[in-house]
Amino acid sequence: MTEFRAVVVTEAASPVALATAARLARRGDLVLMGARRADVCERLAARLRACGAAAFAAQLDLADTSSIDRFVEAARYLIGEADVLVTGAGLTDGSWIGAQHLAAQLIPPMVDAGQGDVILVGPELFGAPPCGARRDLDTWMSALDAEFVGTGVRASLIRSAPVGSRAVPHDVGRLLAAMVGSRGRMHLRHVEIVPPVAAPRLSKEPDVR
């Protein structure tokens, strides 16, 4: 039996986040998308609602604490307390601090409920430059691991390996949806995506002698 969950997806105007939100909403999860460009998310949310899905959008600027606080209020009104947070992490300046400020408000109800998932997504998958993100992500992940011991809340980290091609958004969305839906079963703690790279063409027939 599938158990549907209340999910918050940030940086939701990016292709990966949009693909993730759409897949989750179509299978029955309550989804709230947050982004600076809320109009982009609202267009997708409206299409999903027209198909019977529970998808919503709200403005979210991770560099503005007042915007984060308003977003949290909207989340509790639209989908209740979040069971899952999918957020881009390792961003620069106020966005990095803002992502942690948002998480700090959404995580305590998960701990109280004895279940929840916090999925950190590398910024390169959300279309942002990685900067010093790998170190920052590892640090945040370690802190969450320590915080969540014995609580029933899980932390996961997903990022793209540094290769020459990008991961396909729908493929990443499928993986993220599987992670969200794996409550009580598998826990994919650290996932590194390596996009497919075409094999080089041989200029001549190989010598098999």
From TrEMBL:
Sorted UniProt keywords: NADP, Oxidoreductase
Q: Tell me where the signal peptide lies.
A: none
Tree of life domain? Bacteria
Q: GO molecular-function annotation terms?
A: oxidoreductase activity
Q: What PANTHER family does the entry give?
A: DEHYDROGENASE_REDUCTASE SDR FAMILY PROTEIN 7-LIKE, RETINOL DEHYDROGENASE-RELATED
Entry similarity comment: Belongs to the short-chain dehydrogenases/reductases (SDR) family.
Protein name, entry field: Short-chain dehydrogenase
Tell me which species this is from: Mycobacterium celatum
